Amino acid sequence: MLQLYADWHTHSFYSDGSMTPEEIVAAAARRGLDEVAITDHGPRGMFIGIKAARFYLELKKQAARLAEKYSIRVLIGAEANVISLDGDIDIPDEVAGELDILIAGLHPQVWCKSFKQTLTWILPNWLGRYSGWLREMMRETNTRALAAAIYKNRLTFISHPGLMMDVDLDEIARACSDRGCAMEINAGHRYDRDKVIKAALKWGVSLVVNSDAHYPESVGEVAEGMVLLEKNRVSPAQVLNARKGQPVLEVEQATAGNFYSHPASSRRLT
Ligand SMILES: [Zn+2]
Ligand SMILES: [Zn+2]
Questions:
Q1: Residue range of the domain that includes 54
Q2: CA 20 to 30 Å from 170, out of 24, 100, 106, 204?
Protein backbone atom coordinates (compact mmCIF):
# COMPACT_ATOMS: atom_id res chain seq x y z
CA MET A 1 0.00 0.00 0.00
CA LEU A 2 1.12 3.52 -0.81
CA GLN A 3 2.31 5.41 2.27
CA LEU A 4 2.82 9.10 2.88
CA TYR A 5 5.36 10.66 5.18
CA ALA A 6 4.20 14.28 5.11
CA ASP A 7 1.15 16.51 5.15
CA TRP A 8 2.01 19.73 3.32
CA HIS A 9 -1.23 21.68 3.68
CA THR A 10 -2.56 22.83 7.08
CA HIS A 11 -3.91 26.11 8.47
CA SER A 12 -3.17 27.68 11.84
CA PHE A 13 -5.01 30.51 13.59
CA TYR A 14 -2.67 32.89 11.77
CA SER A 15 -5.23 32.49 8.95
CA ASP A 16 -8.56 30.64 9.26
CA GLY A 17 -7.47 27.49 11.12
CA SER A 18 -8.41 26.83 14.74
CA MET A 19 -4.96 25.59 15.79
CA THR A 20 -1.85 27.16 17.19
CA PRO A 21 1.26 26.19 15.20
CA GLU A 22 2.24 23.96 18.12
CA GLU A 23 -1.10 22.13 18.00
CA ILE A 24 -0.55 21.39 14.30
CA VAL A 25 2.92 19.99 14.93
CA ALA A 26 1.75 17.96 17.94
CA ALA A 27 -1.16 16.51 15.92
CA ALA A 28 1.16 15.59 13.06
CA ALA A 29 3.57 13.87 15.45
CA ARG A 30 0.67 11.91 16.99
CA ARG A 31 -0.25 10.71 13.48
CA GLY A 32 3.24 9.38 13.02
CA LEU A 33 4.18 11.85 10.29
CA ASP A 34 7.82 12.65 9.67
CA GLU A 35 7.10 16.11 8.28
CA VAL A 36 4.33 18.71 8.37
CA ALA A 37 3.92 22.06 6.64
CA ILE A 38 1.96 24.98 8.06
CA THR A 39 0.60 26.79 5.01
CA ASP A 40 -1.66 29.67 5.96
CA HIS A 41 -3.79 31.53 3.41
CA GLY A 42 -2.28 34.56 1.69
CA PRO A 43 -3.20 38.01 3.07
CA ARG A 44 -5.67 38.90 0.30
CA GLY A 45 -8.13 36.18 1.28
CA MET A 46 -11.39 37.79 2.49
CA PHE A 47 -11.85 36.81 6.14
CA ILE A 48 -9.52 33.80 5.71
CA GLY A 49 -6.13 35.38 4.99
CA ILE A 50 -3.11 35.87 7.24
CA LYS A 51 -3.07 39.44 8.62
CA ALA A 52 0.14 40.36 6.76
CA ALA A 53 2.77 38.43 4.80
CA ARG A 54 5.41 39.23 7.45
CA PHE A 55 3.66 36.79 9.83
CA TYR A 56 5.04 33.90 7.73
CA LEU A 57 8.48 35.00 8.89
CA GLU A 58 7.27 34.91 12.48
CA LEU A 59 6.09 31.34 11.91
CA LYS A 60 9.49 30.50 10.45
CA LYS A 61 11.09 31.54 13.73
CA GLN A 62 8.88 29.11 15.66
CA ALA A 63 9.51 26.12 13.37
CA ALA A 64 12.91 25.00 14.68
CA ARG A 65 11.80 24.92 18.34
CA LEU A 66 8.67 22.92 17.48
CA ALA A 67 10.62 20.51 15.27
CA GLU A 68 12.98 19.78 18.11
CA LYS A 69 10.25 19.41 20.74
CA TYR A 70 8.19 16.93 18.67
CA SER A 71 11.02 15.27 16.70
CA ILE A 72 9.39 15.99 13.36
CA ARG A 73 10.42 18.22 10.46
CA VAL A 74 8.38 21.43 10.35
CA LEU A 75 8.08 23.41 7.13
CA ILE A 76 6.55 26.85 6.78
CA GLY A 77 4.75 27.65 3.56
CA ALA A 78 1.87 29.69 2.20
CA GLU A 79 -1.28 28.89 0.28
CA ALA A 80 -1.18 31.97 -1.89
CA ASN A 81 -4.21 33.43 -3.63
CA VAL A 82 -4.13 34.17 -7.34
CA ILE A 83 -5.03 37.87 -7.40
CA SER A 84 -5.00 38.78 -11.08
CA LEU A 85 -5.71 37.25 -14.46
CA ASP A 86 -1.99 37.73 -15.19
CA GLY A 87 -1.09 35.21 -12.49
CA ASP A 88 0.03 37.51 -9.69
CA ILE A 89 -0.10 36.02 -6.18
CA ASP A 90 -0.42 37.71 -2.79
CA ILE A 91 2.99 36.73 -1.38
CA PRO A 92 5.81 39.23 -1.99
CA ASP A 93 8.99 37.82 -3.52
CA GLU A 94 11.08 38.59 -0.43
CA VAL A 95 8.74 36.50 1.74
CA ALA A 96 8.26 33.73 -0.86
CA GLY A 97 12.04 33.33 -0.98
CA GLU A 98 12.07 32.47 2.73
CA LEU A 99 9.35 29.81 2.54
CA ASP A 100 9.89 26.04 2.36
CA ILE A 101 6.77 25.49 0.28
CA LEU A 102 4.83 27.82 -2.00
CA ILE A 103 1.31 26.75 -2.97
CA ALA A 104 -1.14 28.72 -5.09
CA GLY A 105 -4.84 28.11 -5.40
CA LEU A 106 -8.00 29.70 -6.70
CA HIS A 107 -10.45 30.87 -4.02
CA PRO A 108 -13.70 32.79 -4.58
CA GLN A 109 -13.10 34.93 -1.47
CA VAL A 110 -10.23 37.13 -2.47
CA TRP A 111 -9.43 40.81 -3.03
CA CYS A 112 -7.79 41.04 -6.44
CA LYS A 113 -4.98 43.39 -7.27
CA SER A 114 -7.58 45.52 -9.05
CA PHE A 115 -11.07 46.13 -7.69
CA LYS A 116 -12.43 45.73 -11.22
CA GLN A 117 -11.22 42.10 -11.38
CA THR A 118 -12.71 41.43 -7.93
CA LEU A 119 -16.06 42.45 -9.44
CA THR A 120 -15.74 40.93 -12.91
CA TRP A 121 -13.82 37.73 -12.10
CA ILE A 122 -14.13 36.80 -8.41
CA LEU A 123 -17.74 37.85 -7.77
CA PRO A 124 -19.20 35.73 -10.62
CA ASN A 125 -17.20 32.76 -9.29
CA TRP A 126 -18.57 33.35 -5.79
CA LEU A 127 -22.09 33.46 -7.23
CA GLY A 128 -21.23 30.37 -9.27
CA ARG A 129 -21.83 28.22 -6.19
CA TYR A 130 -25.53 28.84 -6.87
CA SER A 131 -25.39 28.59 -10.65
CA GLY A 132 -23.87 25.87 -12.84
CA TRP A 133 -24.15 28.19 -15.82
CA LEU A 134 -22.00 30.89 -14.16
CA ARG A 135 -19.47 28.28 -13.02
CA GLU A 136 -19.03 27.05 -16.56
CA MET A 137 -18.93 30.54 -17.97
CA MET A 138 -15.95 31.42 -15.74
CA ARG A 139 -13.93 28.28 -16.56
CA GLU A 140 -11.86 29.81 -19.35
CA THR A 141 -10.97 32.92 -17.31
CA ASN A 142 -10.09 30.84 -14.24
CA THR A 143 -7.89 28.56 -16.35
CA ARG A 144 -6.06 31.54 -17.83
CA ALA A 145 -5.39 33.03 -14.36
CA LEU A 146 -4.21 29.80 -12.75
CA ALA A 147 -2.03 28.82 -15.73
CA ALA A 148 -0.47 32.32 -15.65
CA ALA A 149 0.26 31.89 -11.92
CA ILE A 150 1.95 28.54 -12.61
CA TYR A 151 4.20 30.13 -15.24
CA LYS A 152 4.88 33.32 -13.28
CA ASN A 153 5.77 31.86 -9.86
CA ARG A 154 7.98 29.07 -8.58
CA LEU A 155 5.25 26.94 -7.03
CA THR A 156 5.67 23.62 -5.23
CA PHE A 157 2.09 22.65 -6.09
CA ILE A 158 -1.35 24.07 -6.84
CA SER A 159 -4.04 23.44 -4.23
CA HIS A 160 -7.32 21.67 -5.05
CA PRO A 161 -7.60 22.55 -8.79
CA GLY A 162 -11.28 22.50 -9.76
CA LEU A 163 -12.67 23.10 -6.26
CA MET A 164 -15.06 26.08 -6.04
CA MET A 165 -13.64 27.68 -9.21
CA ASP A 166 -13.91 25.52 -12.32
CA VAL A 167 -10.83 25.12 -14.55
CA ASP A 168 -9.84 23.17 -17.66
CA LEU A 169 -7.75 20.52 -15.92
CA ASP A 170 -6.09 19.43 -19.14
CA GLU A 171 -4.72 22.95 -19.70
CA ILE A 172 -3.67 23.27 -16.06
CA ALA A 173 -1.88 19.91 -16.08
CA ARG A 174 -0.04 20.95 -19.25
CA ALA A 175 1.18 24.14 -17.55
CA CYS A 176 2.20 22.14 -14.45
CA SER A 177 4.08 19.70 -16.64
CA ASP A 178 5.96 22.57 -18.34
CA ARG A 179 6.93 24.12 -15.00
CA GLY A 180 7.54 21.04 -12.82
CA CYS A 181 4.69 22.07 -10.52
CA ALA A 182 2.68 19.33 -8.76
CA MET A 183 -1.12 19.07 -8.44
CA GLU A 184 -2.83 18.44 -5.14
CA ILE A 185 -5.40 15.82 -4.23
CA ASN A 186 -7.09 17.50 -1.30
CA ALA A 187 -8.56 15.01 1.15
CA GLY A 188 -10.42 17.71 3.06
CA HIS A 189 -12.85 18.70 0.31
CA ARG A 190 -15.22 16.83 -1.98
CA TYR A 191 -14.86 17.68 -5.67
CA ASP A 192 -13.99 15.75 -8.82
CA ARG A 193 -10.55 14.53 -7.74
CA ASP A 194 -10.61 11.57 -10.16
CA LYS A 195 -10.46 14.10 -12.98
CA VAL A 196 -7.40 15.78 -11.40
CA ILE A 197 -5.61 12.43 -11.11
CA LYS A 198 -6.43 11.53 -14.72
CA ALA A 199 -5.13 14.88 -16.02
CA ALA A 200 -1.93 14.50 -13.95
CA LEU A 201 -1.38 10.97 -15.23
CA LYS A 202 -1.92 12.10 -18.83
CA TRP A 203 0.68 14.88 -18.58
CA GLY A 204 3.12 13.12 -16.24
CA VAL A 205 2.56 15.67 -13.47
CA SER A 206 3.43 14.79 -9.86
CA LEU A 207 0.65 14.64 -7.29
CA VAL A 208 0.63 15.51 -3.59
CA VAL A 209 -2.02 14.34 -1.12
CA ASN A 210 -2.84 16.61 1.80
CA SER A 211 -5.43 17.14 4.50
CA ASP A 212 -5.99 20.94 4.29
CA ALA A 213 -6.54 20.62 8.05
CA HIS A 214 -8.10 23.47 10.00
CA TYR A 215 -8.65 21.36 13.17
CA PRO A 216 -6.27 19.05 15.08
CA GLU A 217 -8.20 15.88 14.30
CA SER A 218 -7.84 16.55 10.55
CA VAL A 219 -4.05 16.92 10.46
CA GLY A 220 -2.77 13.97 8.41
CA GLU A 221 -6.30 12.79 7.64
CA VAL A 222 -5.84 11.79 4.00
CA ALA A 223 -7.76 8.51 3.77
CA GLU A 224 -10.10 9.73 1.02
CA GLY A 225 -7.19 10.81 -1.13
CA MET A 226 -5.39 7.53 -0.66
CA VAL A 227 -8.45 5.56 -1.78
CA LEU A 228 -8.54 7.63 -5.00
CA LEU A 229 -4.84 7.07 -5.69
CA GLU A 230 -5.28 3.32 -5.22
CA LYS A 231 -8.37 3.28 -7.43
CA ASN A 232 -6.50 5.08 -10.22
CA ARG A 233 -3.40 2.90 -9.73
CA VAL A 234 -1.08 5.86 -9.15
CA SER A 235 2.51 4.80 -8.56
CA PRO A 236 4.30 6.09 -5.42
CA ALA A 237 6.91 7.51 -7.80
CA GLN A 238 4.34 10.06 -8.99
CA VAL A 239 3.32 11.20 -5.48
CA LEU A 240 5.76 13.74 -4.04
CA ASN A 241 4.94 13.12 -0.38
CA ALA A 242 4.83 9.31 -0.71
CA ARG A 243 7.57 7.03 0.47
CA LYS A 244 9.55 5.57 -2.38
CA GLY A 245 10.51 1.91 -2.38
CA GLN A 246 9.87 1.39 1.33
CA PRO A 247 10.69 -2.06 2.65
CA VAL A 248 7.69 -4.19 3.65
CA LEU A 249 8.95 -4.14 7.26
CA GLU A 250 7.90 -0.53 7.70
CA VAL A 251 4.25 -1.46 7.33
CA GLU A 252 4.40 -3.07 10.77
CA GLN A 253 5.23 0.26 12.33
CA ALA A 254 2.21 2.03 10.89
CA THR A 255 -0.86 2.02 13.11
CA ALA A 256 -4.21 0.82 11.81
CA GLY A 257 -5.81 3.37 9.54
CA ASN A 258 -2.61 5.40 9.42
CA PHE A 259 -1.13 5.85 5.98
CA TYR A 260 2.17 7.20 7.24
CA SER A 261 5.17 5.21 8.24
CA HIS A 262 8.50 5.49 10.01
CA PRO A 263 11.43 6.02 10.01
CA ALA A 264 12.10 9.59 8.94
CA SER A 265 12.43 10.19 5.25
CA SER A 266 15.38 12.11 3.97
CA ARG A 267 13.32 13.97 1.38
CA ARG A 268 13.11 17.71 1.90
CA LEU A 269 11.70 20.53 -0.12
CA THR A 270 13.73 23.65 -0.51
ZN1 LIG B 1 -7.56 26.41 -0.47
ZN1 LIG C 1 -6.06 25.36 2.43
A1: 6-253
A2: 100
Query: Whose atoms come closest to the Cα of 17: which ligand?
Result: 2
The alpha carbon of 188 and the centre of ligand 1 are apart by a number of angstroms equal to 10
CA of 21 to the centre of ligand 2 (A): 15
pLDDT tens-digit readout, 44-56: 999 999 999 999 9
- What is residue 4's three-state secondary structure? strand
Helix 21-31 with 54-70: angle, nearest 10 deg: 40
The predicted pLDDT at position 1 comes to 72
Q: Is residue 259 part of a domain?
A: no
- Cβ pair 36, 74 in contact under 8 A: yes
Q: What's the pLDDT tens digit per position in 123-140?
A: 999 999 898 899 999 999
Which one, of 10, 34, 35, lies nearest residue 23 by Cα? 10
- The ligand minimizing its distance to the Cα of 211 is 2
CATH code: domain of residue 27 = 3.20.20.140
Round to whole Å and give the CA distance between 39 and 75.
8
> 92 CA distance to ligand 2 centroid (A)?
19
Question: Which ligand has an atom closest to residue 164 CA?
Answer: 1
- Structural domains in the chain (count): 1
Paired strand residues for 40: 78
